[in-house]
Amino acid sequence: MKQNPLIFCAVAFALLWTTGSAGSQLVQVRHWSGQGIAPVYEGYDMNPDGSFNMWFGYMNRNYEEEVDIPIGPDNNFEPGGDRGQPTHFMVRRHKDVFRVPVPKDFGSQKLVWTLRAHGQTAQVSGSLNPVWMIDRLRTTRGGNSEKVNSNTPPVVTIDPQEQTVLLPNSGSVKLNLSATDDGLPKRAGKTVGMTVIWNKYRGPGAVSFDSARAPLADGKAAAVANFSEPGEYIIQAVVDDGSGEAAGNFGYHCCWTNVQARITVKTSP
């Protein structure tokens, strides 16, 4: 059988091009579990009294595994130990998860957050260096002009803020949210609106929600949290205004709000 030399050359070139392209690309491997948690220092802002809030978040390198790291040697701040950081880490990147208040004379001191998971240790150091100062009015799209209104986070309340529940009779609690938003930026067409994500922030056992993610209807939302075992829990609700400002924008600190409820779970006598 006689081969067509043009076809042979075309196939050879295609194989060479494919091999070269594959070799030049960086291969990204997704790890579903077994990876560590990277703490992130987001920056700081100033309170009216001259004190400061130092903001932290994290990156869970896993795509499926949520990780629990109790307060202690594997989850601590220096100085301070417990600075209100989470002990439950949801998958992937979470920005401005919590703040650490520091006095106005904090000066050149630093806060160092250490996390250890799956044999991997990661640290981040936070300071009041001016390069880390967050200007809330200028970290939204269009916020670089005094003539343009800047998007602001929703104003959110949660009820109850504290409650005690009993196992096994009633190991659950209904949490109610109310939120208002400025509606910025104005966009043509249908808007997404506010949504809420519920998660365990701290606690010894598992927590499940009947609706872990939901839109707010008329500024309202509710979820039932179920607890697997006794202990002290903190539930966090993250309300996003739907503007898309928070989605992967480096340096942006808008537009979502975190609120928390403290739930004590006890065993029935």
Index terms:
1 helix; mainly beta; Immunoglobulin-like; 43% strand; 2 domains; globular
Commentary on this structure:
- The structure is a single chain.
- The chain has one helix at residues 5-24, and strands spanning 37-46, 52-60, 67-68, 75-78, 88-89, 92-102, 111-117, 120-126, 155-159, 162-167, 172-180, 195-202, 207-209, 213-215, 220-227, 231-240, 256-267.
- The model is unreliable at 1-24 (pLDDT under 50).
- The chain has a five-stranded mixed beta sheet, with no helix packed on it. Strands 9-11-15-13 form a four-stranded antiparallel beta sheet, with no helix packed on it. A three-stranded antiparallel beta sheet has the order 1-2-6, with no helix packed on it.
- It is built from one helix and 17 strands.
- The N and C termini lie far apart (89 Å).
- The chain has two domains: 37-132; 147-267, Immunoglobulin-like (Sandwich), CATH 2.60.40.3450.
- The longest helix is centred in the N-terminal third of the chain and has 20 residues, at 5-24.
- The chain has 269 residues and is mainly beta.
- Helices cover 7% and strands 43% of the residues.
Reconstruct the topology from this structure.
Layout: H1 5-24, E1 37-46, E2 52-60, E3 67-68, E4 75-78, E5 88-89, E6 92-102, E7 111-117, E8 120-126, E9 155-159, E10 162-167, E11 172-180, E12 195-202, E13 207-209, E14 213-215, E15 220-227, E16 231-240, E17 256-267
> Helices and strands, in N-to-C order?
HEEEEEEEEEEEEEEEEE
Question: Rough shape?
Answer: globular
Distance between the termini: 89 Å
For the biggest sheet, the summary is: 5 strands, mixed
Taken together, the total number of domains comes to: 2
- How does the helix and strand content classify structurally? mainly beta
Strand residue content: 35-45%
Largest sheet: spatial strand order: 10-17-16-12-14
